[in-house]
Specification:
Helix content of chain B: 55-70%
Strand content of chain B: 5-15%
Distance between the termini of chain B: 37 Å
Structural class of chain A: alpha+beta
Largest sheet of chain B: 4 strands, antiparallel
CATH class of the largest domain in chain B: Mainly Alpha
Number of helices of chain A: 14
Radius of gyration of chain B: 24 Å
CATH topology of the largest domain in chain A: Multidrug efflux transporter AcrB transmembrane fold
Number of helices of chain B: 9
Strand order of the largest sheet of chain B: 2-3-1-4
Number of domains of chain A: 3
Oligomer: heterodimer
CATH topology of the largest domain in chain B: Multidrug efflux transporter AcrB transmembrane fold
Shape of chain B: elongated
Shape of chain A: elongated
Strand content of chain A: 15-25%
CATH architecture of the largest domain in chain A: Up-down Bundle
Largest sheet of chain A: 6 strands, mixed
CATH superfamily of the largest domain in chain A: Multidrug efflux transporter AcrB transmembrane domain
Number of strands of chain A: 19
CATH class of the largest domain in chain A: Mainly Alpha
CATH superfamily of the largest domain in chain B: Multidrug efflux transporter AcrB transmembrane domain
């Protein structure tokens, strides 16, 4: 028994040292650098550190719509090539494509062409009538799933890129479920700017201005088939409200897009009152197209369209071979910087909607930490004091175990890089109250056994043995409950579940194993005649 | 020091009918309160909407704030001052329905700037939750509580090999959750995710208590197999009484520390724990055990036979 005691003591010593080892970096900076490198400070949750937590939803339906739009365009080209005449191809609200063929006799050839070129489109019941035959198509279910999935993946990438460039330490960006993305930005100073940066779709397109057809006619409804009307907006700096829009008639065809960019930088035009602008550089393919377009259209205007709003439409004065261009507008320097960021990071494949936001300012975070520490200290003192008064020296032993329990909780948090949240601190305080329960069970049992007349050692032994099953069951149920909480909770509540769970499991070790070692030492080694309990 | 030096022999079980009545009244009050308030008062977590915590650099009243944001027409708008009086901190809250949750923050800041001047206040915390997400969380919270009941029913039944023990345990847990929710409804406090966490912790704590007594019952049954169930239970409760009171006591010490020093969010949580803690102990003595007896006697007809 004594031999055994030695090894048990070693276990207690080692775990105490390990606990302290993991805990120290969080308390002080006065330690050699290798220590700091191995072990981080305890991670604080957003509610203690300050920062922004967003849950966004990728509007994958929009992506499906875009895909179908592309199919419509491609279909028009293919039918032209295959010389199958059609009246029109329309995209319907229910996400189906209706093709109105000119001549019924081309049906067979049409079906062949569809099967060969568009395997992802499944045909639904066609609409027939006296004079018309309209096959209807929808996207195959697997294709829909694939498109939605890749849209979310791409959105995730783009968001990551943007945040990387925004410069936040330790951001957390994760996919949640099918189409949601969780974004956590600790220590964020300007949440409004971050949200703008994230939400902007940033689809950049270059289109030629149509100066041949009449703008007035188009505004009255007679838009030429190859053109569209987009607006240039004037925005009031202060309020962000659009104060004026004037329409431009543009050729629909997109000549260049944002994904052909290889760089974008904010610049200041010293020649023009230090006005900020964004200079962009195309990749090789884009540069070539740009050269061709500018060569063939000297004197015409090229519209730079961002998210379907015309930013500027400068006149092409000469062919531009270097693949560089400028986006001008009434930017502030910060806006120019942000625009450059989103252009570099790429455009979002579909719009994202913010479903949930929780932002905590750093001052509240600091206050919460202070309050948390105060509550923990007071709670600990009350419990420790009580144990000492009620159980005397045995209470002191239980208190040592409690102290070790706390050290272990923090050490485990630090080791697993789990975040400490405000409810997590509450969990630690609760653990104090609950961990003590194990010792109360044991001590009450020991008292009972002593009253029944057992010898000191026998009473201690019986106390531990008989209390064990109750301690085990009650600890297990608490861990079960904590596990359920972890599963169903978000952020701060998860932090609570973690500290509760870790605390109870650690208490199992400290309240039973550690205190037993101390008791055994006094009873077996020091051969005390009676326990102070 | 010892509170219970003399072996107590209180007849707990004898009073079980009074206890049933008392619990019945508590639950009735809870239900009435819930009906009157049209359900529990949900925080933004569950109802969806926006909750903003603002600190002002000079004394203001809730009424002034409310009039300042009048023009925004926020549905179900409430303005409450934070408990730490003298800090000039308020919580402005509104539920979603017509809210454009993405732009509401800016409008709110603007309105406050207009009324009180720029830089006179600091937005310390913002929570906006879309209605869809709110409903999701409601479901999750409810499921979490129900699943915890279920798992414990299975576990207790398995460990103690008598279905009645499980039923008794669950009855105590349901009682505790209802009473806590009722207390919140009566005092018009908000129920959000942290409160659900408190409810589950209460479930964990309450079942601990109950298990300790069941464990003793199991032990005593082995020692005196010929005794009748109510007597064994009474004896077990008396034997573990000191432990029950002390454990509740130490947990209460921790909860009081949280209540007084935890601040804001933690305050409500601590209140829930306070109610739940007391209810948990009470339910162990006066709900779980009587239900076990009831189940064994009436449902399984083992009144006169030995248990």
């Amino acid at each position: 028994m004594v031999r055994n005691l030695f090894w048990r003591f070693i276990i207690v010593l080692l775990s105490t040292l390990a606990g302290i080892f993991y805990l120290v970096p969080s308390i002080t900076d006065n330690i050699p650098s290798w220590w700091h490198e191995k072990i981080d400070k305890i991670h604080l949750g957003l509610d203690l550190q300050g920062g922004m937590h967003l849950i966004t939803e990728v509007q994958t339906d929009k992506a499906i719509e875009n895909t179908l739009n592309q199919y419509v365009q491609t279909l028009e080209e293919v039918l032209d090539e295959e010389k199958i005449p059609f009246i029109e191809i329309t995209l319907r609200k229910e996400q189906t494509i209706a093709v109105e063929l000119l001549d019924k006799s081309t049906n067979e050839k049409f079906e062949e062409v569809m099967k060969k070129n568009f395997p992802a489109l499944t045909s639904l019941q066609p609409e027939t009538g006296e004079s018309f035959y309209r096959p209807i198509f929808a996207l195959d279910k697997n294709e829909i799933r694939t498109v939605k999935d890749s849209t979310v993946k791409q959105a995730l990438e783009t968001i990551r890129n943007r945040i990387d460039q925004f410069g936040v330490t330790e951001p957390n960006i994760q996919r949640q479920g099918e189409d949601r993305i969780l974004i956590q930005l600790p220590g964020l100073n300007d949440p409004a700017r971050a949200k703008r940066l994230l939400k902007q779709t940033a689809m950049l397109e270059f289109k030629l201005v149509n100066d041949e057809d009449n703008l007035q006619n188009a505004l009255e409804g007679r838009v030429p088939p190859d053109s569209e009307i987009l607006y240039e907006e004037n925005v009031d700096k202060e309020t962000g409200i659009v104060t004026g829009r004037h329409p431009l008639l543009l050729k629909k065809r997109t000549l260049l897009t944002g994904d052909m960019l290889v760089d974008a930088q904010p610049q200041i035009d010293s020649a023009q009152f230090n006005r900020p602008y964004v200079s962009i550089k195309f990749n090789a393919k884009g540069a070539k197209i740009f050269k061709t377009v500018t060569t063939n259209n000297v004197g015409k205007r090229l519209a730079i369209v961002l998210d379907n709003v015309v930013r500027s439409a400068p006149v092409i004065r000469e062919p531009i071979g270097g693949g560089r261009a400028q986006i001008e507008g009434s930017f502030t320097l910060e806006e120019a910087k942000d625009l450059a960021i989103v252009l570099r990071a790429g455009s979002l494949p579909a719009p994202i909607k913010i479903l949930e936001e929780r932002t905590v300012g750093p001052s509240l975070g600091r206050d919460s930490i202070d309050q948390g520490i105060r509550a923990t200290v007071v709670g600990s003192l009350l419990v420790l004091l009580f144990m000492f008064i009620y159980y005397k020296l045995s209470g002191l032993i239980a208190n040592i175990a409690l102290a070790l329990n706390m050290v272990l909780i923090f050490a485990v948090l630090a080791a697993f890089e789990a975040a400490l949240t405000l409810p997590g601190i509450a969990g630690i305080v609760l653990t104090l109250g609950m961990a003590v329960d194990a010792n109360v069970l044991i001590f009450e049992r020991i008292r009972e056994e002593l009253r029944a007349g057992k010898t000191t050692w026998a009473a201690v032994d019986a106390g531990y043995a008989k209390a064990f099953s109750a301690i085990f069951d009650s600890n297990l149920t608490t861990v079960l409950v904590a596990a359920i909480l972890f599963q169903f909770g978000t952020g701060p509540v998860k932090g609570f579940a973690v500290t509760l769970c870790v605390g109870i499991m650690a208490s199992f070790f400290t309240a039973i194993f550690v205190t037993r070692v101390v008791f055994d030492y006094f009873v077996l080694v020091k051969k005390v005649k009676s326990v102070s309990i | 020091m010892e509170f219970f030096r003399i072996k107590t022999n209180i007849d707990f079980i004898g009073k079980k009918n009074y206890a049933f009545a008392f619990s019945g009244i508590l639950i009735l009050i809870t239900i009435i309160s819930l009906i009157m308030h049209k359900g529990p008062r949900y925080g933004v977590d569950f109802a969806g909407g926006i909750s903003v915590r603002v600190k002002f650099s000079q004394p203001v009243t809730a009424a002034e704030i409310k009039s300042g944001i009048q023009t925004l027409n926020l549905p179900n708008c409430t303005v409450q001052e934070f408990i730490e009086k003298g800090q000039h901190e308020f919580q402005i809250q509104s539920s979603t329905e017509n809210l454009d949750i993405e732009n509401i923050q800016a409008s709110l800041s603007q309105a406050l700037s207009k009324k009180f001047g720029e830089g006179r206040f600091e937005v310390r915390k913002v929570e906006t939750v879309g209605a869809k997400v709110g409903k999701d969380l409601q479901k999750k919270g409810l499921w979490a509580v129900i699943i915890s009941w279920g798992m414990i029913l299975i576990y207790v039944g398995f460990r103690f090999k008598h279905f009645s023990f499980g039923v008794g345990g669950i009855a105590a847990l349901v009682h505790d959750v209802l009473v806590t929710v009722g207390a919140f409804s009566l005092t018009n406090r908000e129920i959000d995710l942290t409160i659900v966490a408190a409810l589950l912790t209460i479930v964990g704590f309450s079942i601990n208590d109950t298990i300790v007594i069941y464990d003793r019952v199991r032990e005593n049954r082995r020692k005196t197999p010929s005794a009748l169930l109510p007597e064994i239970i009474n004896q077990s409760i008396n034997e573990t009484l000191s432990r029950t009171i002390i454990t509740t006591g130490t947990l209460l010490l921790a909860v009081i520390a949280l209540l007084l020093f935890g601040g804001g969010v933690i305050h409500n949580f601590a209140f829930a724990m306070l109610v739940g803690c007391i209810s948990g102990t009470y339910s162990t003595l006066y709900v779980a055990s009587p239900v076990v007896i009831f189940w064994e006697e009436k449902i399984r007809g083992k009144k006169k036979r030995r248990y």
